[in-house]
Amino acid sequence: MTEFGDSRRFAVMQKVRLGDATPSGRLRLDALARSLQDVAAEDAAATHLPEGRGWILRRMTFEIGRLPAIYEDLEVVTRCTGVGGRWAERTTTIAGVDGLNDARTALQSGVLVTTRAIWVFVSLENGAPVSLPPEFFAAYGERVRKHKVSARLIHPDPPADGDREAFAFRSTDFDVFDHVNNAAYWVPVEEFMAGEGSGRRITGATIEFGAGVDPGDRCELVSVTTASEHWVWFMVGDDVRASTRVEFAP
């Protein structure tokens, strides 16, 4: 379902499949990120923006009431909720089907996850950010100009004395742009959740990207865990290429 202009929303129905879930049956963060990426791509493809342009994820924040469970039916609704000069904010809600009051609208009590993502509009030729074109506002409406959003990264640097461990992405983690796909950065978090973090309930998460990890980069992880959160920094030398933060229930 798609609505255009100032009321534009893009909605799809999804199901949590076997390959998306942990042994305990909850939706994994990497599978959630992949789903959100696909929905964003489908919506963007329907806007017919100028050729030779694309979107690179800068930051994504998850507000999590409950992560969906295996075989659960979901409605995923995405829309633009703000812009900068060369980027846009996409807000996406994931609701259980039982939380719908009709075929289109999710009740607040039915929303399981809300995400807000900053996507930078870039040239596919050289990766440089470019201005949002008139076609963008024709599709998403002029009202989105009223909410200005920042693409500034806000995660702190890792502690100088933090322990490092080598980490290798798989060849299957690289996408058509020859970058590690954003969903793959959640794999170390899921490894933590399967071990030391077992039994903790995730209530929020954030991921931020600098330059990202490229083929041939020697990547290392710096991790910090407290009672309320778990941090992972993806390092190439002294350069932070990406970072994740996961928050836990008390």
What would you give as the CATH superfamily of the largest domain?
Hotdog Thioesterase
The number of helical segments is: 3
Strand order of the largest sheet: 1-3-4-5-2-7-10-9-8-6
Helix content: 10-25%
Unreliable stretches: 99-109
The assigned CATH architecture of the largest domain is Roll
Summarize the structure.
The chain is mainly beta.
Describe the protein in words.
- By secondary structure, the chain is mostly beta strands.
- It folds into 2 domains: 5-146, Thiol Ester Dehydrase, Chain A; 164-248, Hotdog Thioesterase (Thiol Ester Dehydrase, Chain A), CATH 3.10.129.10.
- It is 13% helix and 35% strand.
- It is built from 3 helices and 10 strands.
- The protein has helices at 29-45, 134-140, 187-194, and strands spanning 10-15, 53-64, 73-83, 87-96, 111-123, 164-166, 202-209, 219-225, 229-236, 239-248.
- It has a 10-stranded antiparallel sheet, covered by helices on one side.
- A hairpin with a 3-residue loop joins strand 8 (219-225) and strand 9.
- The relative contact order is 0.17.
